[in-house]
């Protein structure tokens, strides 16, 4: 089976496996983290046709014919995505949740370029951070919105 991941067609041998394992083990895209395995923590978040999706709950076969974007696919060559740059300015303690927050923030900014604090809170709230870095996360998402509006 073929998947389109980060703009590239990739052959996968295990379409019945969960997408998180296909991305990590078959395709070597380890930026997508495995956390809880029940879709609650969000560390496995990817975008499927631009929509926030829990890769630990999604069979790879469900992504056939659709565009999968992982944290590795946010950057364009050497140019980091605004959410990547903003989180570098507002680092988190351990970073295990970071891929999920990056992907949720990227999806938010794609549909809402100028999010309100409440919209940022709602988008960030779907992912857990065991270190309690929620203030840094909210700052980073707001900063990413600024960078995106500035075209940086």
UniProtKB/TrEMBL annotation:
Keyword Iron-sulfur carried by entry: yes
Keyword Metal-binding annotated: yes
Domain of life: Bacteria
GO molecular function: 2 iron, 2 sulfur cluster binding; isoquinoline 1-oxidoreductase activity; metal ion binding
InterPro entries on file: 2Fe-2S-bd (IPR002888), 2Fe-2S-bd_dom_sf (IPR036884), 2Fe-2S_ferredoxin-like_sf (IPR036010), 2Fe-2S_ferredoxin-type (IPR001041), 2Fe2S_fd_BS (IPR006058), Beta-grasp_dom_sf (IPR012675), Diverse_Oxidoreductases (IPR051452)
Domain 2Fe-2S ferredoxin-type: 1-74
Keywords tagged on the record: 2Fe-2S, Iron, Iron-sulfur, Metal-binding, Oxidoreductase
EC number in record: 1.3.99.16
Cited Gene3D superfamilies: 3.10.20.30, [2Fe-2S]-binding domain
Protein name: Isoquinoline 1-oxidoreductase alpha subunit
Organism: Deinococcus soli (ex Cha et al. 2016)
């Amino acid at each position: 089976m073929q998947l389109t991941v980060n703009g590239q067609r990739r052959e996968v041998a295990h379409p019945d496996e969960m997408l998180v394992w296909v991305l990590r083990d078959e395709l070597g895209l380890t930026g997508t983290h495995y956390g809880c395995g029940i879709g609650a923590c969000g560390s496995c978040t990817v975008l499927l046709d631009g929509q926030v999706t829990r890769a630990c709950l999604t069979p790879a076969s469900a992504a056939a014919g659709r565009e999968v974007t992982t944290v590795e696919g946010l950057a364009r060559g050497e140019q980091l995505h605004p959410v990547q740059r903003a989180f570098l300015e507002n680092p988190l303690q351990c970073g295990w949740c970071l891929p999920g927050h990056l992907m949720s923030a990227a999806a938010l900014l794609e549909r809402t370029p100028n999010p309100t604090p409440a919209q940022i809170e709602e988008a960030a709230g779907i992912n857990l951070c065991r270190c309690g870095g929620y203030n840094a996360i909210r700052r980073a998402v707001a900063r990413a919105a600024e960078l995106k509006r500035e075209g940086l």
